[in-house]
Amino acid sequence: MAALTFSPSQSAAKLTDRALDSRPRAIPLKLSFPRAARGRTAIVRSSHGSQTLVDDCSQASDVPLLTCSEAVERLQVKRRSWAGKQRYLAMYSSVVGGIVTDPAAMVIPLDDHMVHRGHGVFDTAAIMDGHLYELNQHLDRIIRSAFMAKISLPFDRESIRGILIQTVSASQCRKGSLRGVKVVTSSVPIKPPQFATMKSVNYLPNALSKMEAEENSAYAAIWLDNEGFIAEGPNMNVAFVTKEKELLMPHFDKILSGCTAKRVLTIAEALADEGKLLQGIKLGNVTVEEGKAAEEMMLIGSGVLVRSVVQWDEQVIGDGKEGPVTQTLLNAIIEDMKSGPSTVRTPVPY
Fold it and tell me: Which CATH architecture has domain 181-339?
């Protein structure tokens, strides 16, 4: 998976071998305790900008004062102890002006607005057989998100495109990005349309929604909009197949316009024209009753591609198995990633 991030003071392109972690790692100003997978750190800032990092498992008198090289060495040791977890393969940073492949060097300045203000935007693109999938479409969306977030880009579009391709090449990643999952209805308030339609780094509601799902033994939580219609998941779109073989998808006026979702719609149109698996396609308001009564339900996104949903809350969807339309769309997207037109496949020179 290729991720591209912009904040007011820097840009970063990072390559990981799986979808981005949904757990929050927000670091507020002043004294903070960011949620992390392993251990906790307190960041203490003074009004003059000085700061101290304190492990909450240690007494203050035991905290060593580290040199930069000692801190990097500790980071490298810590990273090696995380073997088997999510791997980060390469990162470009405008702060250092280059690409690094050592995860210990993949850092963002603490005073960056993306870190302590949540002012940043990002996007992701899948990699299949040495090709970035829908790179241009993802670039268009992150540039649009940056404009909406009032972030001035440090490079022009072609420079950003070139940096991302070079970062993928340095990573040597040629393929990165469960079938039949359960979802629940999210109780976390959905972001208002002004923020939901841009892909910003302010993903705290998304992370809380994902965590709520995991606490209920589910894969994702589904948001409803302020009128009670089905909206989206924490980092994916949602679609349904009715008993009349019509593909239903919530329109994009209040939610993120998913690149993969729009590509799925294009592929689904061809299926509808054939009249075999689908009889039609509809974008619009979808009620919870319509969704739960559907024959098939699916999650769609760069990370999940097309993932079948077999249960929503206590309601089994269809016959409780992955449906034929979902299977066909998943296979079609994978084939599109492998041998689709040049408009969706960008070769990476390794």
Answer: Alpha-Beta Barrel (3.20)
